[in-house]
Structures are given as C-alpha cells and as structure tokens.
Amino acid sequence: MDKLIISGGTPLSGEVRIAGAKNAALPILAATLLAEGKTTIGNVPHLHDITTTMGLLGRMGVTLVIDERMRIEVDTSTIKDFYAPYELVKTMRASILVLGPLLARFGKAEVSLPGGCAIGSRPVNLHIDGLRAMGAEIEVENGYIQAKANRLKGARLVLDMVTVTGTENLMMAAALADGVSVIENAAREPEVVDLANCINKMGGKVSGAGTDTITIEGVETLYGTEYDVLPDRIETGTYLVAAALSGGKIKVRDTAPALVDAVLHKLREAGADIECGEDWITLDMKGKRPQAVNVHTAPYPAFPTDMQAQFTALNAVAEGVGTITETVFENRFMHVQEMQRMGADIKLEGNTAICAGVQRLTGAPVMATDLRASASLVLVGLVAEGETVVDRIYHIDRGYENIEEKLEGLGARIRRVPE
Amino acid sequence: MVQPEISPDQDGCRVSGDLVFATVTQLLAVGEKCIRDSGKKSLVFDCAAVGRADSAGVALLLEWLDRARQQGVCLQFRNLPDGLMSIAQLSNVDGLLLADGS
C-alpha cells in the first residue's frame, strides 16, 4: 500500500485544476448504454473506479476508445453480453448503475448484488422495486439480480428514502420507458442533474432534476452525443480548505462555484477572501490563521457531509472553538482520533465534534478508514510541524486524482512512497 | 483524418499519420510485415510523424511489440507523441512502450 509523506508548514500558493466529478462520471458512463451510436464523454477523472467501469462495459462487448484529450468514446453497437459479474461489482457498488440502462434498452440484465449488501437492505430494494413498478420481472438468485422486461412502462416511483444511485438508475430506466414516470423524493445532488442533462442531450425528456420530483417522459430511442462531466465539487472544496488552513492563496480552475456555495460561505466565515468567476475561485487568507466555524451537514444544497472531515481539519488549527455536527452518516468521525494524536483538541459528543483550535500540531504516522477522512489527514499534515505519514491512501486514490502532484504544484512538500 | 503509413528508413521504419480506432486495424498487418521483412534483430519505429492517436493507437504499438518479440526482433519506438504517451500512462503501459524491446 502506498503512503503519503508530508512535511508541513508551507502556505499553499498557485493554481490547481479540478477534475470531473467521479460521482457524475460513473452514472454517465452507465447511461451511454442507453444510446444508439457513439457517445463521447469528456472531463472524466483519472480514477480507478472509472477504469473499473470501462472494464465492466468492455466485458459486455462495448467498444471504448480513449482519445488524446482523455475523452472516452463509447460505442454500444458491439454489445453482446448484459452481465455485471460479482468480481467487479464487489469492488465498486456503482456497478449497479448498469441495471436500469441494460433493462430499458436491451430488455435484460444480470447484475451481481453489491458486496456486503444482502437483499432486503433498502437501497438495493429501491432500485428493484422501482424497476418492478415499471413492469420488469426481477428475481434475485445466487447473489445476482436477474431482470427482464419488454419495454418498460412509465410509473410513479416514490422513494421512501433519498438515494442518489437509486434516483439515477430509475431515471435512466424511465428515459426509454413507454410513457411518463415521476420519481418522488428524488435525490437533488448536482451529479443527478448532470446525468439528467446528459440524457436530455441524448434526446431524452427529463425535467425537474435538482428538485425532489423528477419527471421523465420516455422516448423510443436515445442517440449518442458528446458530453463533459461537471467539475468535482468536493475536490474543489478540499483544495480551498487546504489553502485556508495553511494561510495560503490559491486559484482553483475549471470548477463551478455555484456547486460549492455552502462551502464558500463557511470559508468566508473563517476569514478567507474569496472571489469567483464563471469557472474559477480564488481564495486568499492573507497569511492569517482561520477562524473556527460551526458546520451542520445535510443533503445538498446544504453543507455536504463529504466536506465535514476537511472542516474538522480547518477547525483543528483555527482560532476559537468550532463545532461540526454530522447528520447524514453515523460514525463518520474516524479521523478525529488520528488528529488528536497530532495534538488536536477535539471532543466528540454524539454526532458533534467540538474543536478548540490549537496553534501547533505535530506530524505523526496516521491512517484513515475512508476517503474524506484520509484527505483531512493530508490537510492537517500540511500545517503540522515535522513529518506526517498517511497510510492506507488507497482511500484517497478512489476520490482524488493525483492528489500529491496537485498539492506539490501548490508548493506543498509531499511525496508518495510506494510499498 | 490523415491515413497512416509505414515506410522504411535508415534504422527501421517511419510511422506517420493518425493512429486511431478507424485506422489501426489496416496498419497492424503492414507493420508486422515490416518487422518480418526487415531481416534485422533490432528495429526502430520512428513515430515523429504520427498525428492524432487514441487508445487504439496505443494498443497497436503494444501488439507490434508482441509480434516482434514472437519473431525474435527487438522493436523500439522513438519520438512517441506526448498525447499518445499520456494515454499509455493512464493505462500504466508507458513503460512497455519506452522499453528497449528486448
């Protein structure tokens, strides 16, 4: 397992380019199965899950070509198999996103249940129940979802919990269904909107994406198109926080400021001077230490749970006391103990982390258990005295494209050590 | 699209044109013939005149390497375009293309 070694103490400075959002790219790659002809997807991040998805599509017989601008051209005319095997699905739960498109366009699909996800667990059931409501015959046998249908029928689909992949899977299925479908209690995330925009560019009729009611008027055929994935809002926020806690000044390019409103609001509260253009954001701390902020996570458009750990890092070195309240996921403070080992003054009370900022953190060997927690440990490493060694960075590599190269480009002293 | 060609030069062959999905299939056999007919144990394909390239172009070069090896020929590529190398890096096969072919 690779490690990152960081020598802290350098304020970040310079420009960084933001990659496309993985959580938008994965469903959009699945959506290419809906279209006749070739679809070209641009601004795809270079991440392992993208390669896995390309492998999944390739196994089905889909032809994939990467061009010099790193755009992926997908031609589904060569598809011969409608099967997503366990060995791929277990490594990437998003593989289930091929279920809706395969069923809608080809009338059959066999998709492994995601690893660790027994049937009966609600998120997978929501996909299956929604497709059944559209007329699909679905059986779950030997760990696989086996689905078939003639043309799916439009239906009213009420999700009893908000699920991003469930919304996306059903939206893709409904795009080729006969009649109108309405998804109620739909996820509102920008990545859902991006998928809807892509389907509409293919000739689909999706409206209401970004609200909790999405209406899809099914069409007989969708056609290949060219589409660029939206920028990664969490990567954007992470680099901005990195600059803020290091007292630096950076420009984030190729991003979408509107996607990070809640994060920018909190960074301004922390004392950052922020300016935005159409596709860029500058942040300048003017050498100051950040002020502690209070954060309360909630589904989009509120403050994202995926930025919570990074703001814990910010509060760890800020002036004053700040609280971070996590309302979306349980047990998402695994990074706190590691930060405490570096000298952070953080107390956990239920789902809230109360953080009294300290002037000095010291480097330590640390490791994390999830993607954003790992990123937050890299951030504190940027300001800690001495060397911080972050282990298990395969978590980071799942969500951040070339993180050490980008931080190095901003002046950080960071290197990857293969093991 | 610029049709690709392979023509003999001093150390081996000169590859030119676009190495893309639509063109590489026809070029595979031509390149293999160059390798076979060269009569050399060591051969260089100069790619300075390659235009556009995509992942199919990378696959073509890897296939040529493999077929050269089967025939006991040490094939090396020279002047690979940056765009093509970026695609190779993405798939972690850049080292194969830069190797000495032995």
Q: What does the model show?
A:
The complex is a heterodimer of chains A (419) and B (102). The model of chain A has no long low-confidence stretch (mean pLDDT 94). The N and C termini of chain A lie close together (5 Å). Chain A has 14 helices and 26 strands. In chain A, β5 (63-66) and β6 form a beta hairpin. Chain A has helices at residues 22-31, 48-59, 86-89, 99-106, 122-133, 164-175, 190-201, 233-245, 261-269, 308-316, 334-341, 371-383, 394-397, 403-409, and strands at residues 3-7, 13-17, 35-36, 38-42, 63-66, 72-75, 83-84, 108-112, 137-141, 144-148, 156-158, 180-184, 205-207, 213-217, 222-223, 226-228, 249-253, 273-276, 281-284, 295-296, 321-325, 345-349, 352-356, 365-367, 387-391, 413-417. Chain A is elongated. In chain A, the strands form seven sheets. In chain A, strands 24-25-1-26 form a four-stranded mixed beta sheet, covered by helices on one side. Helices cover 32% and strands 25% of the residues of chain A. Chain A is an alpha/beta fold and 419 residues long. Chain B has 102 residues and is α/β, with parallel strands linked by helices. Chain B contains four helices and four strands; from the N terminus they run ββαβαβαα. Chain B has helices spanning 24-38, 55-70, 82-90, 94-98; strands at residues 5-8, 12-19, 42-53, 74-78. In chain B, strands 1-2-3-4 form a four-stranded mixed beta sheet, with helices on one face. In chain B, β2 (12-19), α1 (24-38) and β3 (42-53) form a beta-alpha-beta unit.
